[in-house]
Specification:
By secondary structure, the chain is an all-alpha fold. It is built from five helices and no strands.
Length: 103
């Protein structure tokens, strides 16, 4: 009974939900960046009367969306690099050993 209690204390209760929301946030941030860019472009078009300012706002939105994707990529890459340095996987990588191939 004590062992189960210790295991439950180590794993956060809502860890899977938090990870799912973190992954969902990338899609939401892309949509928000594009929407803000279009909104900014429409506002600039209304204030200045020039159509090219609409496209300027859209370009800012697209650039912000790409920046969000790049940041998410760097975060995922850092996580995978950390996993690659785990001794469990590092030995297999260095020696080219795959347990499936050994059989």
């Amino acid at each position: 009974m004590e062992e189960n209690k210790e295991i439950d204390e180590q794993i956060p209760k809502h860890k899977d939900k938090i990870e799912a929301l973190d992954n969902l946030s990338l899609g939401i941030s892309i949509v928000v960046a594009l929407a803000l860019g279009v909104g900014l472009g429409l506002l600039l078009k209304e204030w200045t009367g020039y159509v090219w300012t609409l496209w300027l706002g859209i370009a800012y939105g697209v650039a912000a969306a790409f920046l969000n994707v790049y940041k998410a990529y760097k975060k995922a890459k850092a996580s995978l690099d950390e996993l690659a340095n785990d001794p469990k996987y590092k030995y297999q990588k260095e020696h080219g050993i795959n347990k499936i191939d050994e059989n």
